[in-house]
Structures are given as C-alpha cells and as structure tokens.
Design a protein that fits this description.
Largest sheet: 2 strands, antiparallel
Shape: elongated
Order of helices and strands: HHEEHH
C-alpha cells in the first residue's frame, strides 16, 4: 500500500511483482480498474485516486468470476481429444494461444 491506498500496478522489476501477478490472475481488470473519480480536473482530464485498501477488499469480495472455483476440483471427461480440449479451454491462460472462454 501507499499511505493506505491500494497499489493497482507495479513494474516487472518491483519486489512485489509476483504477489501483484497472483492477485491480478484471480481478479483481472476488476482489480486494476479500481480507481475513484475525485471530481477534479487537471489539464483537461479527470483526476482519479486509487481505492483505499479496505474499500478494494470489499469490492473484490463481490468478484466471484474465479474465486468461486478456488479450492474445488472439476472432473472433465470426453470421448474425443477435440471435445476434451474444448472443455478445458475456459481454464487456459490466453498467453497459451487460447483467445476465448478462459476466466481471465
């Protein structure tokens, strides 16, 4: 945190980058798009502040896209490899070439 505000982005060489990646993997844009409109304008643009940590925690508790699956086991079966892959695609990271169906 920075003075109680949530850190919504860190660089790859930051000491907390691994932790940030874990949170982002679960919550995605719901995490990084957690700024509050201050109502102020500077240089013709709206000014936003990061959420306070407690407010962000409350927000993320309501994001159940991935968290409802944590700690569970899902059995997947199919008679053909193509159908098996289709069933698994929703769990694959888009960095592996899948561009639809995954949780994040």
């Amino acid at each position: 945190t920075q003075e109680g505000c949530a850190i919504l982005y860190v660089s790859e060489d930051a000491h907390n980058y691994d932790s940030w990646c874990k949170v982002y993997a679960v919550y995605g844009d719901s995490f990084t798009k957690s700024s509050i409109d201050t109502g102020e304008v500077a240089n013709g643009r709206k000014v936003y502040n990061a959420m306070m940590v407690d407010d962000l925690k409350d927000k993320l508790k309501r994001v159940r896209t991935v968290t409802h699956k944590l700690g569970t086991v899902e059995h997947v079966e199919a008679n053909e490899a193509r159908n098996f892959r289709r069933k698994l695609e929703r769990y694959m990271d888009s960095a592996n070439g899948v561009n639809y169906g995954q949780y994040w």
